[in-house]
Amino acid sequence: MIHARTLHALEFGEITAWLAELCRTAAGRERARHLAPLPDAETASEAARLYEEAAVWLERPLAEGGFRLAAFPDVSGLLRVMEERRGASAQPDAEAFWALREMLRQAQAARQSIAVPEAERQWPRLLALADAEPLPVQLTAALNRCISDDALLKDESSPELYQVRVELRRLHQSCMRKVKDYAVQYNMLHYLQDEFMTLSSDRYVLPLKSNFKGRMQGIIHDWSQTGETCYFEPMFLVDINNRLQELKHEEREEERKVLAYLADLLRAELPGAHAALRLLAELDLLQAKRALAESMDGRCVPITTAAEGIQLLGARHPLLMLAPLLRGEAAESEQKNRTRVRPLDIVLRPGERALIITGGNAGGKTVCLKTLGLIAAMTMSALPVPAAGGSHLPWFSRLDAFIGDEQSLTDNVSTFTAQIQHLAKAWKHLGESGLVLLDEFGAGTDPAQGAALAQAVLDELIDNRTFVLAATHFPSLKSYALTRESARAASVLFDPASKKPLYKLAYDQVGASQALDVAREYGLPESILRRAEHYLLQDGGDTSALLARLNALAAQREEEMQELRAQQGRAKQQLEHEKDKLRRERQRLHDEVRAQAAELMKAVREGKAGHKQALKELSRLRGSLAEELRPEEVSVLPQVEHFAPGQQVLHLTFNKRGVVTDVDERRSRVRVDLNGVSLWAAMKDVRLAGASAAPVAARAGGPVSPVLAAVRAGSEPARPAAATDAPREGSLLRLDLRGQRAEQAEAEVERFLDKALLAGISEVEI
Fold first, then answer.
1. Which of 317, 595, 607, 656 has the fewest CB atoms within 10 Å, i.e. the most exposed one?
2. CA-CA distances (angstroms) from residue 304 to 42, 301, 465?
3. How many Cα neighbours within 13 Å face the side chain of 181?
4. Burial level of 711, CB count in 10 A (0-12/13-18/19+)?
5. Within a 13 Å sphere around the CA of 115, how many CA atoms are in the beta-carbon half?
6. Cβ count near 485 (within 10 Å)
């Protein structure tokens, strides 16, 4: 829970107001204005994951089935009236149904864009939102059939309406023809103000010049404002106009029937219409959240447990990030503002509960408190916040902020009294999952008593395992921050030369208040400042030189850390570049070997080369590549000083585990049994194989013969493939044929000799 007073102190309403501005529909704006922290961590985490899925969905281009919500008229009033007067004779007009059609069309398009084959994998929560309630299918189809884009009823709304309108058009054409024939027959074109007829009082009339009104028989229906034109109905048009009135009456009756039919459909599918509006309102809010994130380079911060502490990295105050937009400035100002707003690292390590911030006025202490408070409130509302990756916050079941002057003349309370009243009311609700922000708590009374009270409050909060951030100038609280278990000190930094704030936090140290420097900066007379320095020296409380030295050292350390971080970033970038270059080179050589191996295998199949000749050529090719790309062997396993039979070892060349069966100290080699295959290996190619030892590539560099890969797999080389390196020349391979039949043994020997030839082995044992 976050009390309304705390949300007001953190200016959370400014965020929701701007979010409402980013919405495109009235329903979305209403939803944004009433946005509030969610009831629990699970709900907030699910809402954050829904936002992240929606961000992926919104990135889809329109050409690939993407969707962008457009503004549509507010239909909430229409639906509310139909709900309240469900059984009554509520009859919306065609314009209201047009607005409803626009809303339902967008809801249908949004659902089609969401419900794609990859939705279950990419945005399952968004799909569940779209499928939560059925949309009004019949109502949408009827509105598309009956309502035109100019908010009128179409002719095709009903057969009867179609017939009436066809007759009206025929009558109009007949009327035009008769008027033209009449004017030509009686040579009266020069009597008319305009050669076309018009409508007056819903009847066809002729615009006759007023000085000719007595020249023909008929009825004058109206005059122009100037009096120079009268609207005259000739007698031959009377019957036609009477028929026109009948058809107009029939048209209105048929339109009424169509509107009544649509109203009945709306009543029948009213829950679906509400569901469509809720879906679009939620999508509008998600779209606005995405725009908010882009405007302040924001992301959703994960919610973790209280045991993991607080870690806000590169955090910026959201309203400072949005300041140019709130002032209506251009995008260039917004970009400059991103670099102007300084990031803060707000960190409470596991086990720490209190962060006590000291340092000079106007150094950013209050901004630090408000940054954490507002980001926490936004995170609990599943909103993106301006913080770097790696940030996380615990769930705060209670957040209370005591920031600013809460003095009230009407309630007859001072600043100090107001803080105490609010803290007393909130105290029983504070616990392990609470967060309290204290800005200069206890400063409105006697300094000694205020400092003692502040220490007692901090003691109780820490004992209750409540998270607390406190900004203070009390000297006793500075030493308290350095000595109290579970508390951590931090100081806002100032430039040692200019005394300007750097808007950075230096942890595990305290800072001077620098009141005299601030007073000098803002123009207080020098005579007053000299007197203040004199009184300060008299009181013996001037520790500013020591604290200034600490501030200078902390500022220097911060600069060095920034430089180290920059160097680390450049080194990582260079390493990634080199790795990418190596990967491309390996791929090139791999493709080259595959191509050449394919040519050799094709030659073997076509009879242009012998099988053994191809194996020799592949071995030569592999050897040349290995010479070109063979790097230094690297192993994290310990070099063995003395070998003994029975030791578990790892053969680096084969990257396989085995058991030592024999040791030849004179020739520095050991016989190793690798899963039934026994061979002699140089001692430098063997390492002890511990249970936790990870496989180590002896030569991670070049690609190798595709045929060799098939040989190691124990099959004939049917096609090229990548593999590890062959054993070195001088290793002894052994083949055991006992118990096999002659044909099987002959095939095994042939295959075994091919392996040895390919691997460059000069001696084998059968």
1. 607
2. 10, 9, 16
3. 8
4. buried
5. 11
6. 9
State the pLDDT confidence band at 719, using cuts at 50, 70 and 90.
Answer: very low
Answer whether 384's CB lies under 8 Å from 289's CB: yes
Both tokens of 9, joined, read 């102190």
Q: Which residue has the tokens 């000079």?
A: 360
In the prediction, which pLDDT does 582 show? 82
**What is the per-residue burial (b if ≥16 Cβ within 10 Å, else e) of 588-613?**
ebbeebbebbeebbeebeeeebeeee
Long-range contacts: 189-192, Cβ < 8 Å, 24+? 191/215, 191/216
Percent of the chain with pLDDT over 70: 78
Q: Which residue has the tokens 């457009």?
A: 70
d(CA 432, CA 216): 98
Burial 200-236 (b: 16+ CB within 10 A, else e): beebbbbbbeeeeeeeeebeebeeeeeeebbbbbbee
SS (H, E, C) 510-550: CCCCCHHHHHHHCCCCHHHHHHHHHHHHHHCCCCHHHHHHH
- Residue 697: pLDDT above 50? no
Least confident of 476-490, 555-569, 739-753: 555-569
- Asked if 200 and 221 touch (Cβ cutoff 8 Å), the reply is yes
Task: Identify the three-state secondary structure at position 733.
Answer: strand
Q: Is the pLDDT of residue 169 over 50?
A: yes
Q: How far apart are CA 396 and CA 310, in angstroms?
A: 11
What residues form DSSP beta bridges with 356? 470, 489
Residue 683 DSSP label: G
